[in-house]
Amino acid sequence: MKRAFSRVWSFSPKQRHQILTGRIIERSSARSVAVLAAAGIGTSLGAYELIRTAKAGILDGPDDASRHNVQTDHKLTKRELRFLQFASVEFDDVIYMSPMDFIDSLTLDAPRERVYRRVLKDKDVTRILKKTPPFRSGSKHFFRTMDQNGLISYSEYIFLLTLLTKSKAAFRIAFLMFDEDDNGNIDRDEFMLIRSLTSSLRSTTRVQPSKASEDDEVQDSCHLDAADYHFAVSRIGADRLFTGSDSYAVMFTIARMFASKAATLSGTRLVHKSEEEVRKQDTTLLLHLFGLRGNATLSFDEFQQFYENLQEELMEIEFYEFARGKSTISPVDFARLILRYSIVNLDDYHKYLQRVQEKSADDEQGITLHQWATFSRFLNNLAEFQSAVRLYINSNVPVSEPEFARAVGCTIGKELDPVVVSMIFRIFDENNDGTLSYPEFLAVMSDRLHRGLRGRLEKPWGWKPFKNCIINEVSRA
């Protein structure tokens, strides 16, 4: 070995670099497995997850379930995919969102950079749920204040999305549906009914591996690292370790900890919660709405206050994101905000923005927070607005700015600001004739309201929508 290095060192620095690099490259393929194994000694869990993820991507292809490490017996829906894309927490093999994950899923195109989901233990969940404020301390900064300290289940995610797309009239109907005993209040048990509407999304990070590598991986899983040993000593006590009359009990305790970890890593957990047990799990929303003991109730006015705080919080976040530190949103940025979730192709998207830019002055007043709040309230009443202008929709008659403003005023009881109406017509007035077509406008606004998470049929009737409906249902069977 010394003779080989002395021979290499006799060359020039550049030649030494080339020789050493060449030898490293030649030996890299032969030693790749050994290098990965050695590097994973201190971080066995992290390396194991990364290798499994890489295997899933190579062997299974671009399958959504394997890519997101989730158990499913059906093709994932848009909402499930969005939830899995942003959810950053796992607890008891169930995937959860944090409060900030929920906000990010509605305001960002892609999740914040992370390696993999955080796997929480019982003590971690207890610690973060203790930070949940009571309902009387709720505000329009609730989700931002909670940040990563909370759990939001998939069923609660669907519930919150529903609140963001409903008008006050539709919200009251939803409240009456929750209030089973018709006493004017919702308690925890009644609210828990939403947990039974959708199943939890289970993680596959601890599922039994394939037969080809099962024995090797299980054997590797049976080793505890130094952190596990120190944890065992701290739980039992160093003074009792293998000493005294109960030494056998101590040894049995440690053996159980080894078996528990081996079973957990190999996918054969000693305790696996049922779906019913998962639905009873405390979450941030449950503790916030019904207290730590779960004995609080919510009246309609209180529940409506939570509904309004949620909508205002999201509206503020979106406004300040596009305002870019200013007090108003520019006309072009307002168009980007309107078209953010719309299902339009790239060419049409750029045509919209170009049309707005050509019709806007450089020093023109933008959209204020108050004006954006009014427009957001209009979006929540989009279904009522669509019913009000159904005659125009069916006849495909274009409307002018005054007619549009009056129709909005009849829907929400307050007309949109003329500045907002003018900008809407700049976006959708393709022919520059001072009118817009309701069908195109409503299609884009519906995408915006549901944030691109709801599919849209070309027609609400006919053979093709019926066939698509049958295909979707059969694929989930």
From TrEMBL:
<dbReference type="InterPro" id="IPR002048">
    <property type="entry name" value="EF_hand_dom"/>
</dbReference>
<keyword id="KW-0472">Membrane</keyword>
<dbReference type="GO" id="GO:1990246">
    <property type="term" value="C:uniplex complex"/>
</dbReference>
<protein>
    <recommendedName>
        <fullName>EF-hand domain-containing protein</fullName>
    </recommendedName>
</protein>
<dbReference type="Pfam" id="PF00036">
    <property type="entry name" value="EF-hand_1"/>
</dbReference>
<dbReference type="GO" id="GO:0036444">
    <property type="term" value="P:calcium import into the mitochondrion"/>
</dbReference>
<keyword id="KW-0496">Mitochondrion</keyword>
<feature type="domain" description="EF-hand">
    <location>
        <begin position="424"/>
        <end position="451"/>
    </location>
</feature>
<dbReference type="InterPro" id="IPR018247">
    <property type="entry name" value="EF_Hand_1_Ca_BS"/>
</dbReference>
<keyword id="KW-0999">Mitochondrion inner membrane</keyword>
<dbReference type="GO" id="GO:0005758">
    <property type="term" value="C:mitochondrial intermembrane space"/>
</dbReference>
<dbReference type="InterPro" id="IPR011992">
    <property type="entry name" value="EF-hand-dom_pair"/>
</dbReference>
<dbReference type="GO" id="GO:0005509">
    <property type="term" value="F:calcium ion binding"/>
</dbReference>
<keyword id="KW-0809">Transit peptide</keyword>
<dbReference type="InterPro" id="IPR039800">
    <property type="entry name" value="MICU1/2/3"/>
</dbReference>
<keyword id="KW-0677">Repeat</keyword>
<feature type="domain" description="EF-hand">
    <location>
        <begin position="166"/>
        <end position="201"/>
    </location>
</feature>
<keyword id="KW-0106">Calcium</keyword>
<dbReference type="GO" id="GO:0051560">
    <property type="term" value="P:mitochondrial calcium ion homeostasis"/>
</dbReference>
